[in-house]
Structure formats: C-alpha cells, structure tokens
Amino acid sequence: MRVFVTGATGVMGRAAVHALHSAGHDVVGLARDADGAEVLSAMQVRPATGNLFDRDSLVAAFWDCDAVCNMATHIPVGGPSMRPRAWRLNDRIRSEGSRVVAEAARLAGVKRLVQESVSFVYADGGEEWIDEECPVAVTRAAEPVVLAETHTERFVGATRDGVVLRFGHIVGDDGLTRWRLARARSGHAVGMGRPDSWTHLVHPDDVGSSVLAALTAPSGTYNVGAEPVRRTDVVAAFAEAAGADEGSFYRRSVLRLGGERLEWLMRSQRVSSRRLARSTGWKPCEDQFGVHWFAPMAQAHGA
Q: How large is the C-alpha radius of gyration of the chain?
C-alpha cells in the first residue's frame, strides 16, 4: 500500500514509518519546505509538499495514496507546557488540522484514515476496567481530541474506513520522557495523581505496530498500550532508570495551577487494549511496563 503519514518526523510518526517500512509499504510524508523534504528523504519517506491547514495542497499530496495516517501533534515539554498559550498550536492541529486532513483525504479518494488520539480522554474509572464503550470526560483541554475523533468518524462511508487509535502516555526515547528522567535524576517530582491510581502507557514501538494493524482494522475506535500500571510503580521505575534513591509526586497545590491541562492526566484509568488485538491480531511488543523501557535514554547518559 501507499500510505501517507502526517507528522512523520515526530515520535509517533517515526514509529509508524518504521513499522510501515518493515511491512513493505510505500510511505509518503508531508514537507513544508526543502529542509523538511531532506529530513523525510533521509528516512526513506517520499516527501510531498503541503501544509496541514491547506486543503488543496493536501488533496494533491494525498493523491494515489491508499491510506492517510494523521500522526501530527505539537506537544510542549517542561515548564513552558504550563502556559495556556503553549498548547495553542497542538489544539489547532487536532481540531482544525484533523478536519482539513479528513476532508482532503475524502476529496483525494483515499479509502482509509487513521487518526491518533489519547486514552486519557476517558473519565476517571477508579479501580474499574475501561474499554472503548466507557464514557469520555470532555473538558476544554480534551475538546480538540474529541473533535479530531469526530472528523474521522464523519470520514467513514460506504467505501471509506476510519480508525481512531487512543494511545496511552508514550514512554520511550522522546522529549517528555527525557525531561522527566532529568527531573528524577535531580531529585524532583515526576508523578502526578494518586500514587495508587492506574495509568495507561504505550511504548513507541507499539505505536508503530498499532498503526500498521489499523490498516486492516474495521472502522472504529481502539485503545493502544501496555497493561495498565499503578502510578507509584511508574514513578519508581523513573527513579531507578535515573539512578535516584526514590521518586516523588508533585504536591496537589502545584498541580492545581495546571487546571484542566493537568486534570485529565491524573485520572485513574485502567484501560484495556484488547479490542485491537481481537479485531486484527495485534499484540504489543511491550505489554508490561518496566524499567527496561528507559534503556536507550539510560545508555545515552552512561547509566
């Protein structure tokens, strides 16, 4: 298949490109300029000039593609992420960009659209298991994610399929994980929420493999990640990977400053990813979270 990947140079995009190449697919990516095209070419991705918010350029870029995988995001990392304006571009990518991508894919005759999403959009489930039928909690922070999913649902037609992949929190060789490791290494807090609550994580390799599985999945929404894990175990793993004696959690008074941007990151979510496995045979490469997930970053710091 010829598969177009938006956000191909990002964490999720690179994982998707690797999985698609491994399966023998031809991959095309979006390049805004010559520098972007050069980066894509180095990844063995055929560059197509366009802009995520320009429908006509995307129609031309998507032409002759069998599927479009929209992996584009712009996630702020570190202290700046606490500023409301820091999320403006990412929110626009998910709300407006996803609409333009879906419209362009339809006009270009693309038969399948895969849209990235996040599993922490679900309401707090406490100790209960969460699957794709469970309710989501829509806040101003979550609204762009819900809009992106809605645009994919509207893409579906008699000859078109739309797949939404709700990823857990990515833990791997990415900017946010490296930032949290640096904090743990310095003795600063990395945990959010109740220590005994559940969280849903995904390894980058499984982001890629799930995108590959989505090329044959029936239209619908699928959770993607490892088995859920207690937050206290996640913090302990960060501390061990960073060579710290112990990890710690942010104080509630600090987290309240983040408002809705942090609230949905602290919900207890014991998320099941079994639907994708049942529908496609997909199996996560890393189904159990552990300190070995940090191996590439630890090696980079001589740990």
A: 19
Relative to beta strand 112-118, strand 229-230 is unpaired
DSSP class of residue 79 equals G
Token readout for 189 is: 């807090």
Pairing of strands 198-199, 229-230: antiparallel
Write out the two tokens for 279: 């529908």
The residues near 300 (Cβ < 8 Å, ≥ 6 apart) are none
Residue pair 137/264 in contact by the 8 Å Cβ criterion: yes
pLDDT digits (tens, 9 = 90+) for 251-292: 887 777 777 888 888 999 999 999 999 999 999 999 999 999
The HSE-up count of residue 188 (CA atoms within 13 Å, CB side) is 9
Q: Which two tokens stand for residue 102?
A: 């879906």
Taking only the tens place, the pLDDT of each residue in 90-144 is 999 999 999 999 999 999 999 999 999 999 999 999 999 999 999 999 999 999 9
